[in-house]
Amino acid sequence: MSASDPARPLIGLTTYLEQSRTGVWDVPAAFLPRVYFDSVIRAGGIAVLLPPQPADPDSVGRVLDSLDGLVVTGGKDVDPARYGQTAHPATDEPRPDRDAWEDELLRQAIDRRLPFLGICRGAQLLNVALGGTLHQHLPDLVGHGGYQAGEGVFNTVDVRVEPHSRLHGLFDALAGPHRVPVYHHQSIDALGDGLVVSARTSDGVIQAVELPAVSFGVAVQWHPEQVADDLRLFTGLVEAADRYRAGRNRGQADHDSTRHGRRDPS
Q: Helices in 10-73 by DSSP H: which ranges?
């Protein structure tokens, strides 16, 4: 699928909502680093940004009606109250508007079997949305800060991908460790309902999960958008979104034919 294809699938990407400064303006603003939507575009999709907003089910449903796939992006920590914990001193100030918006997007995407990719915070929010919990500060667990160097600097770690996982297939049946960029001080603890682990680091930290109930329900703790020459995760999402759209269009055509009494009995 090329970027010139007029029928490219539409991929929604969630965004930050933070105080932002540009020129003379210093205002609350929705934004997303360019590497995210560039990765979707280069993989053959059309990128649509989804800023945090009231998360009523009807509004979210209308948004998802127009999409073929979803990316839940990185950002601030998920509010620990969502998984029954008090905040660790190192946990970010909660962003309840973004948490609620992305939670509803994910829940309805799963109900629709809409292909999705979670990235860093997106993987954590998926786990929490499905009833799981998080380790709030990895240095307390592993004894070092190697997963988040700070100052916007990405470290790299080796992850081992589980055999027979969708991730394993995307990485061409990769047998050995896969080196990935990381920037996170939290991680998945107790797994959410229906999720399976598809990658870990050698110290046992979960680095990827999948939801087999969705044709492409993949979430990684690392940042694939930071690796310009490796689009495999984004390409997998875009290809699944293209199949989802084709199936939806066939279903709509069958529905229309049935309504008008023209369905071919064959």
A: 34-42, 57-65
Annotated active-site residue 210? The verdict is no
* CA–CA gap between residue 102 and residue 181 (Å, rounded): 23
User: In angstroms, rounded to a whole number, what is the distance separating the alpha carbons of residues 88 and 187?
Assistant: 13
Instruction: Specify the pTM.
Output: 0.91
Q: Tell me the per-residue pLDDT of 122-143, one tens digit each, with 9 for 90 and over.
A: 999 999 999 999 999 999 999 9
Is position 223 annotated as part of the catalytic site? Answer: yes
Annotation says 120 is catalytic: yes
DSSP state of 2: -
Contact 208, 218 (CB under 8 A): yes
Q: Which of 102, 120, 178, 239 is catalytic?
A: 120
pLDDT value of position 171: 84
Are 26 and 215 spatial neighbours (Cβ–Cβ below 8 Å)? no
| Catalytic residue of the set 104, 135, 223, 239 | 223
For strands 134-135 and 187-188, give the pairing: antiparallel
